Structures are given as structure tokens and as C-alpha cells.
DNA sequence: ATGCAAAACGAAAACGGTTTCGTGTTAATA
DNA sequence: TATTAACACGAAACCGTTTTCGTTTTGCAT
């Protein structure tokens, strides 16, 4: 087992001081040609690589960024991570992923674990429990310590920091508008309780589109599930007890399940019922029929978040100016609506 | 901005030495009741938390584990990460995720980045390019430095380390056997080139099951795609040019797409054609009809990998004994086969 | 030979902890 | 009263770097 070599080892072997070795490896002007070549050759030979931890301690910079998200087994979050990872890696950063699993406590614990020097900044999306409680002290503590935070998708106005979201209201709006344009009148919405920031916005977009086109909002056509978790019974109960000609869902699972239910009841999609979901995942693409969705561009969101975070981390002056970037959702038309 | 407090700060305020503070916080017997209470109270008041980096440098233990995988936007890898994350977190470890994106170079770079002190061990699944090249020097270097490695799913025999796989051959075997039992005779296999360790095993299981039941293996019924990437044209070309009564696919996307193709051509599933895939993801569950799959139990695999790694990291003696854990796949029966 | 500036290098502090070992004080014992 | 053990604490080394600030050496002009 050949153990890692350190500056001290090189210094001892070459009978120079540690400082000389350090400088030689950085090609410092202070060191003579001769010595530099000797040191560099030796370092290369023994494959010297500086110890990241020591450098982190010295610089107070870890080149790690902490990502705290509610769940990883969801296409949207997965694509965001990919975006973050790609961008961060290109700038020499590593990504530490922590899952809150929609739990407030885990979110707090994870942040505390990372906030003690392990990372230079956070990128996160709030757990549903956190949004429900409305308790953001763990975020406050972190920002007060000067650790930059970028919130994406599930955000809160209570914390001053950079934010990245898609225009959820607009997404629901264009989807609903599309349905109306195609002559649909009885449009249902399957969403979750309003405490989830995204659900609230989407519900608003849905209502706005209806009102604009002179269709009365019928609250009995809106199903608010307690969480994003699949609840087949509720959806079944909801859909089978009314006559509808279109369904808008806040994720793709709800949408695909709705399609299957309709089909089982002898309804044709999209002839009898149009369906639109959120999240352009693998499910939408390969569902039968393929699902029209509001694409959230998770990878882009991840990139933008990472860029904002790293820019802030590396900026010398600590400007107290924060921005919220709003990405535009787009409608991906597939076979679950007529076209 | 209230900056983090250090031992030195506490020592200065309380007019004691740094050593005393350190010991007091650890409830050392050496320190008097009085002093301990004073120090602990002060620390609590100012919310003192030791700096992880400093501790890492001292202990030469980071409590981070590096996970290097080819892709994150795949249900299987996602569930593995979740398993790793849950288990590792419970034991006080953080997870650094790096994506090789199926590229050999990225895999190497990522490992080098992490191997210089950032992590205590690796959990990884090889990129397809790495398996294709058969170049494992980056893994050798790491293990020679005494950094523990656990390989999962996409492994190699060229490296001595702990490994976790599912019995891919068995998975394909039971799936094929199931199809045969139901009277299917013309069973196609859609897989990838043999350099991918998992594909090779699955092909073997498929052939074994056929031979055991007296069905001749017809190579023209085997489609070997170059990668796991979706290639609709090839699959379409392959499926539409022969009469089949069943299809086995090495992932769920190939399988779902095969179902749609068959349906478009007027074939009923499962009456005319049975389909089985690998990976029990969201796609299988919500496809129409729902897809029978060989479940790979990714989360379990992640847990087991994390446990093996952390056990090795924390074991004092460096035993040079490695084990390979083989998890049993299970067949999840759904509507894409008769039952 | 002398003086001096430039060149080349080393000592030491710093980052924030842990830990070993030494030392001063107090109290108990002879 | 002298001796000693227990107690409470501090100094310093260490982990592996970087960096400032001397100090020594060299070369050159005088």
C-alpha cells in the first residue's frame, strides 16, 4: 500500500524546506530554476497531489456545495441535480447531496451537518413539511452566518436569498388556456394543498385562465391532495363522480393515472378527455397515449442555481443583493390532447 | 453577520486555554465541574459547533463517501443513491455524488478529485466506456492507496474489492422461464453489447432458460444495441421484421416502447405478445398495460453497499478480504404478461 | 576587498481542532 | 512539617497546506 505523499515527505527527501517545496510546485519566482525542476520532477514521479482538506482549512473554502432536496426518486429533482452537478463540476466544485424526504427535522439536521465547514453554500428546495410549518429558522441561521443559499422550485418569501423558479402560474395558465382553446369546458385540476408553493401558483394559473375565458371556476372540479404522494383511491373517487372533458395535473403520475382511469371507463383520450401534466419525464414520453406536459426544465434550473451560488461564493464583496430568476415553462404537446 | 465561534474564541472570553475548552466540551474527567459548566454554557449560548474540516484534517477521516455513477436520471441509480444516502446518513456520513455520464475520462477525473482527502471511500458503478475499454487503472490507484471501494451493479473482476450485484443471470432466467411456461416460444431479447457486465449476464440467463426448456436459441431474435440509450429506429426495425410472441428487455424503456410498437401494429398485450422488462420504476407501474419486470432492488443495493463500505472504513485492521454480495432479483408480475 | 542589491531559501504563523505530557496547586498522609 | 498523590489546567505538537517575513547566499559594481 503506497500511502499518499505530502509536502513534508518531498522536503525531507530533497533536503529543502516545506516552504520551498510548496513554492516550487506553484512555480514561484522566488525559487531557482534548478530547485523547481527537481521538486516538480520528484512530485510528478511520486504523483503528489495536495490534500484537499488541508487546503480547505487554510482557505476556508471547500469547493463543495450542499444540495438539500426532498426526494431524489422524482424525475424533476433528478434533472435539477444533473444540471447542478454538470455546472458545478465544470467550475471545480463537488456536490454533496442530502435528502430531507419531505421531513422538516431531516432538513434541519442535514443543514446543520453541512453548515459546519463542509460546504461553501447551499442549493435547496424546501420539504413539504417545512413549507407547511412555515418555520425557516434553520435557513435564517445559515444565511446569517454568511453562507450563501439558493432556493429553487419550492421557495419561501421569508428568506432573503437568491431564488430560481419556473413561472408555475404561467405554466398552468398556458396549459389551461390550451384546453379551453380546444373547446374543453369542464376542466378538472388535480393538485395538492396550497402550502406547497408550486401548487398554489399552479392553481392560480388555472383559475386565471378559466376566468379570462369566461368559464366559471367550479371548486368541486379541483382536487387537493394532502401531498404529492400518489393516492389512487382519492383520484378515482374524484374523477368517476363527475363528467369532465379535460384534466390538468400538477405532476405526471397523477396525469398518467387519470388517463388510465378514463380509459378503463371507456373514455377515449384525447377524443373524450384531454389530459395535461407537469414535469417532462420519462413517464410522459412513454405513456399511452403520450402525455402533454408543462416542461419545467429542471436541468436548466439546476445550472442557473449552481451558477448563482458559485458566483456569490466566489465574489469578494458581500453584496446584500439577491435576485429571483424566473424560468419560462413550455408546453410539450403530445397525444393526450388533440392536435 | 454573526460569524462562527471557535475554541479559541471561547478560550479568550473565558480566560482559559484552548485545551481546557476542548476537554470541557468533551466532558473530560480532567476538567473541574465548575469549568466544564461554564464552558458548556458559553458554548451552548453562542451555538458552538466544531469545524468539520479541522476535525477531518486531524483524524484523517472526512465522514464523506464518494458515489460515482454513470447517470442519475435513471430510476435504478436513483434508488441506489437513496439507499446509500439513507444508510450513510444514519451512520453520520455525507454523500458526495459525481456523475461520469458514461465517460471514462470523467470517471477518472472525478475519482482523482475526491481521492485527495475529500472522502473516506468510494461506492461506484462503472461507466460503459470504462467497461468497454477495460481500463481500470484509476481504480487500482485508489485501492492501492488504501481507500476502500465498493463496486455495484456494473462491476469488473479485474479489481479486488467489495462488490454488490444482483444475480442478473437469474433475473433474466426466471423472466424467460416464466414466458416459456406460458407457452411462449418466439421470445426476443433486446439488450446491449456484451461489454456491459449486466447485459452479458442477462443474455446468458435468457439463453440458459431457453436451452433448458428445449427451445433453440435464435441469434436473430437478439437485438444488441450499442448503449442503454433509447434507439427507437433500431427497435422498431427489429420488432417489425419478425413474428414474436414475447419480448424480454434489459430496461423498462425498451420494454414500454416495445409494447407501444406492438399495440400500434394491432397486437394485443399480453394476449398476442408478452413483455417483460428490467427495473421496477415508475414507468413500469404506470405504463398501459402495466409492465411485468425483474426488480433490481436498487435501494437495498445502495444500503448494502454503504454498509460494506462504512464497515471497512471504520474497521481498524486492514484485512485484505473482500466479498461479493449477490442480491436476488424478483419478478414483479403485472399486466404485460398473462396471469 | 568591500558594499549592496537581488536572488534563493527557510522559519514560523495560521487555519481549528485533538491529545499527550508537563506543571502548579491543593489536600491528604506520615 | 515534610512528602506525596490527586486534581486542574496549560503548553505544545500535530494534521497538511499557504504565505509572510526574515535570513543567508550569490553576484556584481566599486
UniProtKB/TrEMBL annotation, chains A, B:
CDD domains linked to this entry: HTH_LacI (cd01392), PBP1_LacI_sugar_binding-like (cd06267)
GO molecular function, one term: transcription cis-regulatory region binding
Domain of life: Bacteria
InterPro entries on file: HTH_LacI, Lambda_DNA-bd_dom_sf, Peripla_BP/Lac1_sug-bd_dom, Peripla_BP_I
Domain HTH lacI-type: 5-59
Transmembrane segments: none
Keywords: DNA-binding, Transcription, Transcription regulation
Protein name (Swiss-Prot/TrEMBL): LacI family transcriptional regulator
Species of the source: Flagellimonas alvinocaridis
